Structure formats: structure tokens, C-alpha cells
Structures
1.
Amino acid sequence: MKLYQRACRALAEDGVAGLARRAARKLFAHKDQAQAQAERDRNELLAAQNEYPRLVDDFLRRARERGHGDLSNYYWYHAVDLGDGLVTHGDYDYRHVLPEFHFPDDMSGMDVLDVGAATGFFSFEFERRGARVVSVDLPSLTAWDVIHGEREQSLKGLMEYHRAASPEEAYRRHLDGPFEFCRTVLGSKVRRVHSTIYDLSRQKLGVDGFDWIYLGDVIPHIFAPLTALNALAPLCKGTLVISSDLWDQGASFPAMRYTGGDGPCADHRSWWCPNRLCLEQMLRRVGFREVHLVGRHRTVLRRHWMHISRPVLHATKA
């Protein structure tokens, strides 16, 4: 029964006053549900925040006990389970939401590309499922898409954060060091390639094409999203998976919202947020024929202590 038919029936049965009472009950019920959900969210964030210091201490202690030294200056983007109770305390813990990405359980014999791999959670997960994996991240901190006049301040901030004496040392502690540590402990054969997303090619990657390409939270942090997708499209012979923030998903026209502000701010590396239609049209323009929303993952972003909810899109050329 359609909404207007239900309203007419309620009006006939209960009159105007009865219809108003029904509407009020539903309104208060929705309000109560929203309040209950907000309370659950607050409790989840508080519990995660209270648990976090224990996770950090436990990881650093176990690492020292196993002869890995002091890793307190490393940045852990992902939570990675390294076995025997050793788990990195990453800002993002995707372990419990992996089904929302709809990766094949068995990736044996497949070539997989992980772009913007950071600590490498997805790279190692693809390898665990049997894939041959190429893991891509930037060649240096100076390769980030940052406003020219803010680059020096951005590098200085990262050096201070990591207690590093040089940009190279800060890069090691921010990106390469955490990945290499995880790869060594896991005994992984994931191959690391250093490149910007714009410069990726079959020659640089040493693979003719990839069955799966994963592009995580990258699009918001690059100057030229369409250029990036145009570089990835020729490399994909199967499925491109994108999980990233989208803006105004219900809009009837394609749009890209600029998020960088008009002056220096705490976040020097966020620029764009497309709506779903914009992202879908860009994907089709560079050669993908089918684009589907297959899931949505929701998790806690540690240290910022907020919930994130991001869609998962699959794009294929078939």
C-alpha cells in the first residue's frame, strides 16, 4: 500500500485527530530510535578510546620482547594481525568489515594491485587469499599532492611528529618502515613499488594487467582524480574496487566538492569529495562499463574518535 493510500485509510478510520496521533507516534518512535543509536555510538567510541592505550602498550611491549626494538615513532595506518598476539594499533581496523568489500575468498593465481597501501593490511590480506600482490605507495613525502607554499610546513610537521631529523627519516617512519616491518614479520612476498598514482604503468609495475585493483581512501587526497582513474583503467583487466567518502549521494547531477579550504589548516592533504554520480561517470568515461555499489563499511577511526561509513564500489569493463 502506497503512502497516500495509507494516509487516506487512516483518515477514514480515525479522522484528522487520529491521523495526527498516528503521525506523532511515528515521529516520536523515529526520534527515540535515533537517540538510542546516538547513545550506542557514543558508548562504542568511549569504549574504543579507553581501550586504545592498552592496545598501544601491548603492541610496543610485545615488539620489544621479540627483539624488534622501539617502534613508538612509527605511524600505523592499519591494524594488522601479525600472529601470536602481535597486532599493530592502526587508526583503521578493517578486519571485522572485510565482507563488505566482496573480495573473492580464493584469489589463487590472480594478480592484485593495492594502490595507496600504507601499512599494507589489504596487500597482506590479498596475499593470504592466494594472490600475487603489488603494493604501491609514494616514493617520498614530497610526492604528496600538497600546495607548493605549504609543502615545507607540512614536511616540518611530519618530521616533528615522528621525531625525525630529515624528510627521509620521517618518510621511513610514516610509510615504508611500518610496511616493511609487517612484511618481514609475516614472511610476506608482497612486492612494493614506489610511485605516484599518476605514473603507474605496466612497465613500472612489471605486470601486464591486474585481475583486481583496490583503491582505498585515495581520491580525496589527490589533486587530479580523473587523471588518476585514467592511469588505473588500462591496468585493470578485471575489477576495480573503490572505497572512499562520497558527498551528497542522492544528487541528480555529477558534482565534486572542494574540501581544501582557502588557507592552511591542520589537514594539508584533503582536496575533493565526489558524489556517487560523479565517481560513476568518471569511471565509465575512462572505460569501465559496469559500476555497482556492493557494500558499505562502518568502523571507528581511532585517534580522531569518530565513526566513518564509506561505500564500496566495484567497476568492471565487461
Note: The beta strands are 111-115, 132-137, 191-194, 210-215, 236-243, 256-258, 272-274, 290-301, 306-316.
2.
Amino acid sequence: MTKFSLLLILFFSNFSAFSQVDSTKRKITFQSDFRFRVEHDFNSKKSDGTYSDNRSRLRFRFRTGFTYQLNEWGSFGTQIRTGNLNDQQGPHITIGSNGGEFSTIQLGINKAYFKYSKHNLIGWVGKNSFPFEKQNELFFNDNIAPEGVALNYTRLFKTNKLINSLSIRGAHFIIKSNNATFNNDNYLQGIQFVSRHLDKKMTFFPSFYYFNKISNIPDGKGTYNLNYAILHIGTKYSLTEKIKIGLDYYTNLENYNTNDSISPHLRHQNQGLVANVKYGSLKQKGNWLIQLTYANIQKFSVVDYFAQNDWGRWDYSSTGATGSRLSNFGGLEAKIGYALDKKFNLVLRTYYIEQLVKIDIEKETGYRIRLDLNIGF
């Protein structure tokens, strides 16, 4: 029996044992969710001018975890999920794609962390969710749990109508340890200020992210490393209780003009813009959600294999790597959702993307439609 199998047995044994405890005395909270997805990619032009074959897939994702409250200020959490263990972006399993006839599904530990929370200070160490304010996945994928340390201090202004709260958040995440001093690691550092205004109708969150020694291709397939110094200005505003708008602007302050590893026509591709308008939510049974998002993401305004992998099927599979390469594109996402119950909803999304700067004969394009059934329990 493998060590991983023993770990899963221990996890679910603890789950069973804790479930027998009187609910009024529990210090443990469980969180699980399941998603079933129908997905179709069509009419997608490749860089050589030919078209990719249309593709239809049935997919699913399962995640489960718990949080254990050690005392009034300390807690421990963990989560396991489905997905290729080598793909940080992809927890979804394509039905029928496993290695054998109805072979078993890969599971991995996605989170394991200790968290401190007291008064206005929150901090954690280990592997956990991205701790910075964001309103989409076009900079950082929700499925990725970075590893390192994060801190968040919040000051409340209860009697001030103009500003309701101000937070400062910081983190140091190690992408790859190189068995030397910390400054020689591949890492991500971030700092962010989050202010909420006008009875929390408006949120403003300027941020700065520094990526050190990032490979141009993931999974050890790269040919050179880059540093990224990304300034992000984000804001969102509630026009009414149901109508919200948001804007994100990214600019990479690194200068690649003399980098011979980068094609000259891509060296200045360092800015990104995302705008969205949303109506409704899916918090309660019978709720509707409608959202339209526009994105213009230049090549080096994000690190593409840490960002979303939803908008198209562009990836690094031709190099033997598993990450997506969804930058250097402009496009639209249209979303409509309906809540069948409080934690049970249907979401339909359509995408269109087109390459901003062609890397071969033609600009690549992509069309995608998805229907998700989401269940939380």
C-alpha cells in the first residue's frame, strides 16, 4: 500500500470519527463540492492557419477538506482534490480519459496550512488559497494553492462613512526551492492595500507582485527565466444591490527590450485590462446571475500558467508541459447562472478569444461553450 493510500485512509478515518462527535462540541468544519461539466470547443484557428478539430467533453471535479479549530486564535486546514498531479491549474477529470478502462482517479493534497486569526491580524503558513483580493481568475487561478506565508492586517473605521476599512496584505510564496538561500528560489512576493468605501459599495485594491526567475514554459521545459514586476490596480463598485461593475489594470514594469530570448514584437506586450458588469448572484434558491467580461491580456502582463485556463484550449502540451498559455489574447466571456438551491446551481458560459500578436502565419482564435452543474455540501 502506498503512502498516499495510507494518508487517504487516515483522512477519511478522522472524518468518520469526528462526524460522531456531538455537533454542539465540534471544533471541526467540513467543506466539499462537486462539479459536472459539459464542454464544447469549436471553430478554433491554429497559428499555422489550419483549424483544430472540434472537441466535446464531459468533465467533473471533486474537492473535500476540513478546518479544525485548535483554540480561539489557531486553526489547521487541509483539502484534497481530483486532477492531474502535475497540473496546478486543472482539477477537472475528463470522463473516459484515464489511463485504462475505467481506471482509478488521481487525488492530490491541494491545501495544508496552519492559520492564526486574532483581533485584526490574520496569517497562515503552508499551502492555502491565494490571499489577495481579486474579482476574476485572469491573473491567478482559483484552483492553485500557493505555498509559503501570508499576512493580513485590517483596520476598521466604524464611524467614517467615506472609508469603512483598510487592509494591508503581504505574502512570500516559493514556486521552486533551489536548495540554496531564499533569494535564489523561484518565488512570488506580493503586497496589496484593500480599502472599502461608501458603506462597502466600493472596493479599491492596488497591488504589486514580483515573480523571481520564472521559466518561460512550466514543468521544467523552459529555455530561459524571466522576472516579472506587475503593478495591479483593481476596483469594483455596486451600482445597486444587484448590479456591480469591476475593472482591473495590469502593467509589468520589467524591461525586456534587450532580452534576445524574446521575439522583438512581443517585448513590449506588458499590459492587461479586464472589465466586467454583473447582475444578480447565486446565493439563494431562485437567484439569477448574468455577467459579461471583456479581457485584453498582453503576453507578459500575467504569468500565463498561473492564470485561468477557462477561456480557451491554448496550452503548452506541444512542449510536454501541462500548463495553459492564455495570455496574448483579447476576448469576451458571457455567463448566465441559476440557483436551484442555496449550494446547487447551473452556470452557462461562452467564450471567444483572438490572439493579439501572431506568432506564426495567422492569429489563433478560440470558441468555447460550457455548462456547469455545481453542488456544495
Note: DSSP finds one helix and 17 strands in the chain.
